[in-house]
Every structure is written in C-alpha cells, then in structure tokens.
Amino acid sequence: MARRYEPKPIDVNLTPMIDVTFLLIIFFMLVSQITQSETDPIHVPRPTDSKAREMEYPHKLIITLVNDGEGGVRRYKVGSRLAKDMDTVRAIAEESNRLAEAEGEHLAVIVRADRDVRYEYVRPVLEAIAKAGLENVNLAAETTSQSRKGLPAQEEF
Questions:
Q1: For FRET with 101, which of 15, 47, 49, 53 sits at 20 to 30 Å CA-CA?
Q2: 3-state secondary structure 79-127
Q3: For 11-47, what is each residue's pLDDT tens digit?
C-alpha cells in the first residue's frame, strides 16, 4: 500500500516583516524631520552694488542665524549643530578649525544671517569667530544680477 503524501498547511509568520516595516517608517519620519531642520529658510541680504562671487572652499563652516520674526535670532546653527550661546559657537568653530588644520587646510567661515536680523545679533557671532582664531570670514549675500532679472535668489559667498 502506497503512502499518500499530504502537504502540510503553510504557516507564514508576518510578525518580523511588520516589525521591519514599522522600523522603516520610523526611520524615514526621523530623517525627514532632520532634513527639514537643516534647510532653514532665510533671506540673505540683497546689497545694491554687490561684489559677491561664488567661492569654493574645501573646508568651510557655515553659521546660520535664523530670524525670529522680530529682528532677533531664533537659533544659531553652526554647521549641522545647534548652538545655544556664543561659547558653543566658538567651541564648534575651534574644533572645526583644528580638524581642517590637521588636514593642512584653512577653514573658511560663511555667516548666513537673515536680512531682517539686526546687527547686534551678528556682531557676537563675528567676535566668537575671531576668538576662535579664524580669519577667513565671509558673509552670504544675494547676487544683484539675479535679483534684477527676477530670477530666484542665489546665495554667493
């Protein structure tokens, strides 16, 4: 008598797949929030007779002053890190300068301040940069040729 082969019912455990799916959803939600915080919408100054030109620096530190809507600063962003005070700005600038010098390069600092931020908030940043021993400091500005033509604003350093 021949034995008849009876297939076993297939039992698929979906728990690991659901776990991975939820982890991916959480990962992409966090990454999208980080990406949004790195692109602070600011309007750089638009000088009437700009000598701004694009410059490429192998090592640069971008310091962004985000407007609070009243001429003050909502936050200081140094590179990809947030700084709560000028001591933190100086410490990050010193650390970045040490890393650049270790590679035999000079660090360029680019200050991006919203055009509505009062100078009393920009000056301490410039002083912190000077105390960190950095000399190559540039201010971001919008080119006049693009603003006259009605083209989208482009920052030049």
A1: 53
A2: CCEEECCHHHHHHHHHHHHHHHHHCCCCCEEEEEECCCCCHHHHHHHHH
A3: 888 899 999 999 999 998 887 765 554 456 777 777 7
Q: Which overall architecture, per CATH, does domain 60-156 show?
A: 2-Layer Sandwich (3.30)
Per-residue model confidence as pLDDT tens digits over 61-88: 888 888 888 888 888 888 888 888 888 8
> Given the structure tokens 């000056």, which residue do they identify?
123
Which is nearest to 74 in space by CA: 137, 120, 121? 121
Q: 89: closest CA among 29, 136, 48, 130?
A: 130
User: Hey, where are the domains in the chain?
Assistant: 60-156
How far is the C-alpha of 143 from the C-alpha of 51, rounded, in Å?
Answer: 8
Rounded to two decimals, what is the model's pTM?
Answer: 0.63
